[in-house]
Amino acid sequence: MQLISKTTYSIFLAGMILLLLGLARQLTPLWVAGLALLIVSLTQFQRQRRARKK
């Protein structure tokens, strides 16, 4: 696993935790932030996959 992959995984986990906490406590800013982190991590993952294919 490369350093970039670990960073993406960390962002993904942080996004999941924020999303779950926000939904559990019904706090909109938390789950919106979690969703944003999930989108960022998935975008980074797509970039890594394209870079590996080249």
Structure notes:
This protein has 54 residues and is mainly alpha-helical. The longest helix has 26 residues. It is elongated and about 45 Å long. The protein starts with a helix and ends with a helix. The model has no long low-confidence stretch (mean pLDDT 87).
Q: What is this structure, in a nutshell?
A:
This protein is mostly helical. The chain has helices at residues 3-25, 28-53.
What are the SSEs and their pairings?
Layout: H1 3-25, H2 28-53
Helix pairs in contact: 1-2
Distance, first to last CA? 18 Å
- Mean pLDDT across residues: 87
- Give the tally of β-strands: 0
Radius of gyration using CA atoms only: 13 Å
Q: Which percent range fits the helix content?
A: over 70%
Oligomerization state of this entry?
single chain
Uncertain segments of ≥5 residues (pLDDT<50)? none
Shape designation: elongated
State which percent range the strand residues make up.
Answer: under 5%
Task: Please state the structural category.
Answer: mainly alpha
For the largest beta-sheet, the strand count, sense and barrel status come to: none
Element-level helix/strand string: HH
Count of helices?
2
Key structural traits:
single chain, 54 residues, mainly alpha, 2 helices, elongated
